[in-house]
Amino acid sequence: IGKTKSEAKDSNGKSKQQTQKSRKFIESTKWKDSEMVTNIRVNILTREAARRAEEFLKLKQWTKKKDEEEKVSNELNNQIREKWENLFETKGPFRLFKILKEQQEACKKLTENKDILINEYINELKQKEDFYVKELEREAEEIDLLLERMDQQYHTFRDTLQQEIDQIEKAYMTERTELIEKNINEINELYDIRRQKEEQYEKDKAERVEDQMKSLEALRVNDSDEYTSVKIKLEVDVQVLEQQLQQMRATYQLNTEKLEYNYQVLNKREEENIAILTSQKRKITRLSDIINVLHNKINNQDKQFNQENQSLNEDFKRISEQFKGLQKKFRHFQICNKIKFKNIWKMNEEKTHELMHKLLQADRVITEQQLGLEWKSENDDLFAVLDPLLFKNLVDDEVNPESKEDYLKKEDSIKDIISRNDSLVLKYKEKKGINAKMRKIFEMLCVELEFLVDDKLLKLLEPLDENEQALMKLDSIFKALNVNTFQDIETLATYFMENNNINLNSEYKQYNEKINNKLQLVENGNASDTVIVIKRFLHDQKRNRLIDQISESNNNNLLDDDDDFEKKLENIDKKKKNNQDNKLSNKAYEQIQKDYWERMTNIIDDKRYRLWKIVHFSMQKYNKILSERMTLAEDIKFIKEQNNELKALLRQYMNAKINDELEIPPTQIMLAQAGILKSKSPRK
């Protein structure tokens, strides 16, 4: 196979060598033939260059002659003009006749100079015409020679191409026959190798089958022996397990007897434990006395803590005064910033309005002048001026990541932490104390209603201990529930008592049952009992406020219709909110800002912008057409000028005197070709 590959490379090399050799030979013949053709062109160009140089020298000579003749004629004209002036001053006929003779001779001399120059021009024209006829003949000879050489080049190039193609084809055919013979030999060798491998595979397969049959027979024998041994072993295990079962039954009987004995022992121990309990009760009374002593110590520590609290209050007052001073400085700088912002806003707004006027002016020009349509302003409030302070809030929000409400909440929470002596829960504890039931209610409120506490306040409370955290949480929850007095705390506590309905009047019981049913339907069984009780408390508070407000009207039918009662509650809440409706909400401010920026960005809407693009594209096409027309007009003008020049030259050659001197003038040839002159008359 290695030999065949090397031989194939040699055969491919032969064909490639032949093609390269043929290509080089074709290029050389092509270059030689083209050189023969280009020699004619080179000769023409050299002759034309020499002619132009000669013409340039002649032109200089003619300009020199013309200048000299013009100088002489100007001098003669001046002399003649001066003598004519003197002629009117002369007296006497002889003198006048003499001056006229002199003038006649001067004029004759002037005309003779002109005639000499004219004759030279005429001779030069005759020479040019002779040279033109000779050039035509020479050009015809060169064209014939060029055609002859081109024909010769074509035939020689075609013959060389045919010869080289035959040589290349012959090389490829020999290469093809060699490759076919080599491939046939290679395929025969591969078939022999494949046949040998198949015979060897059959032998190996038969040997493997025989070995596997022997191994299967050996496995059958071994498995049968193993089965018998396992069967014997399992039968022995069953006998052993039956013996163990008998033993377990015996031990069970023994254990039952032991348990009965232990039961009797435990009864005796119980009697002993009762005696121990009596002794422990005596010990409890003794420990209660110790607890009373500890309570006295606690009271003393409370007094000490109150003194510390007073010192902390004085510190708080000092810090609050410093805080007020900082607030005054903050307001001062806030006013200055607002003034600066307003001035910068007005300056930028004037620039934007100027740009908007330019855009609208351009739109009006395009609509009226280019499209011929009536232009109307679609947005009349486009140049409406807004208060810049509407946008100042947005800028402040971007600069300060926390909103003003969050900042105020955080500030209030910090104040609450500092001023814990103003806590409602702390005052309630100092005046009335907190029993076990109230403590449980407060703990339940801290756990169940923790969602009413601000998240930022919870973060601030993390470094405090558990009692202070519970105290701050209760104050925040009471503020959210509008619990502001001790009476409100006790009223809320009654809702958590089991017997809270005992003291209610009979006329309110039916109403409370309806409220409870509504709350249970709202919650769908998912809310906790604490949330349901809080909702009932809030509902009763609203109801009590309504009763206080309309008690003057003596409306005794208030409790008859629950629907009217709910509507009145909603009306009172609406009246409270009417005072806040005069101010714009945050959403209204955002909407005003959004409308303003959309109005600024939509000066030219998408439809108008697409119209501008279409007009721009159409004007570009129109400009392109006009530029093409301009170039065509210039070309036509240039062609007309060339045509006029050619007509003038042709008319000059047709009217030249040299045509009469020639045996066959070019004018008769052109007229004969044009069909104007049908028969030619020989000249004598």
UniProtKB/TrEMBL annotation:
Q: Name one Pfam family in it.
A: NYD-SP28
* Residue numbers spanned by region Disordered: 1-25
Q: Which BP terms in the Gene Ontology apply to this protein?
A: axonemal dynein complex assembly; cilium-dependent cell motility; regulation of cilium movement
Tell me where on the tree of life, at the top rank, the source sits: Eukaryota
For bias kind Basic and acidic residues, which ranges apply?
A: 1-13
**Residue runs in coiled coils:** 59-258, 295-329, 629-659
Sorted alphabetically, the Gene Ontology cellular component annotations on this record are: axonemal dynein complex
Domain Dynein regulatory complex protein 1 C-terminal: start-end pairs: 595-654
Q: Can you give the residue ranges of the Dynein regulatory complex protein 1/2 N-terminal domain?
A: 46-143
Which keywords does UniProt give here? Coiled coil
Q: Which family does it belong to?
A: Belongs to the DRC1 family.
Please give the name of this protein: Dynein regulatory complex protein 1/2 N-terminal domain-containing protein
